[in-house]
Known about the structure:
This protein is α/β, with parallel strands linked by helices. It has 2 domains: 195 residues, Alanine racemase (TIM Barrel), CATH 3.20.20.10; 128 residues, Lyase, Ornithine Decarboxylase, Chain A, domain 1 (Beta Barrel), CATH 2.40.37.10. The protein has 11 helices and 19 strands. Strands 8-7-6-5-4-3-2-9 form an 8-stranded parallel beta sheet. β6, α7 and β7 form a beta-alpha-beta unit. The chain is elongated.
Amino acid sequence: MTSSFPRAQVDIDLDAIRHNLTLLGARAPGSQVMAVVKADAYGHGALPVARAAVEAGASWLGTCSLGEALALREAGIETRLFSWLDTPDVDFAAGIEAGVDLAASSLGELRRIAAAAKPGTRARVHLKIDTGLSRNGCPPSAWAELVDAAAAEPRVEVVAIWSHLACADEPDHPATDEQAKRFAEAYDTARSAGLDPMRHLANSAALLTRPDLHFDVVRPGIAMYGLNPVPQAEDLRPAMTFRSAVALVKRIEAGESVSYGHTWTASRDTNLALVPAGYADGVPRSLSGRMDVWLGGRRRPVAGRVCMDQLVVDCGDYTPAVGDEVVLFGAGTHGEPTAREWAGKLGTIDYEIVTSMYRPRVRRRYLGERS
Length: 371
């Protein structure tokens, strides 16, 4: 029997994800929506999120690895799947057989995909052009050769060309226009080779700020989870809440210190609440002395260092009860800390915060599941 007392739990609001995708789809009315569910749906749980995304109108699901795509297919997801990055030893045959669209960024990758296609079948391929991110993708100098090879390969159907933007979360950054120009040139080359591919380029930020780059498919990632990648108002709802509960309450006198290293000392008599969640559960130790939690209807500071399995909250004269809910981060609608606030204090992005919540001791609860 599962205890109702959460040591560390993330609540995933699937209605928020549906709401966000509906909003994002409305921003790109002429495009299909590829909901990106890579990395276990950014820590939110790939299968429940994939189902919610399809219910919200997504006609594609995007994964990084073929293994992620196949797991969704094996779980009964019939929506079109796209997988774009694997190691050279991956056998593409299972993906082709399962109807997963695959990415090719080089002649070698194209040939491995073609070789994996069984007689009488064709692999569906999206050719990736590197337009300036300089990660995965075919360099422009080799693009024409890749396009010609793909057009001549009978075991391959070129479904799309695509690329990824480097600076779309900075709406005025000139790199986006330069990448758009290179993408247009790559598309013209593909058309000249006799191909008629779809195009997809827009991530969450470009979906929200660059309607000229929506093309045939848009790829919302972080925005579908309610975290806005650009500094503008959107009615996006964060889907993840990280919570725990009070395990012990004690009162200490002024002058007593708390946790390892005694980095915090009580300036007055105070009540402490012990919370059984620590850095093994996704609470960064580097937030020690810099974080609050939501407890008893208000923010309260964490006293001393965050430990592997626990942290301590300074409650002053407020006396919480054992079992009271503690919100470590959430949507922020009541004043509770948010994933973005954590990220700002740590000098990182909220993507890193939510994806790090996929941990063995962190229990997941889904809200808004449909049968």
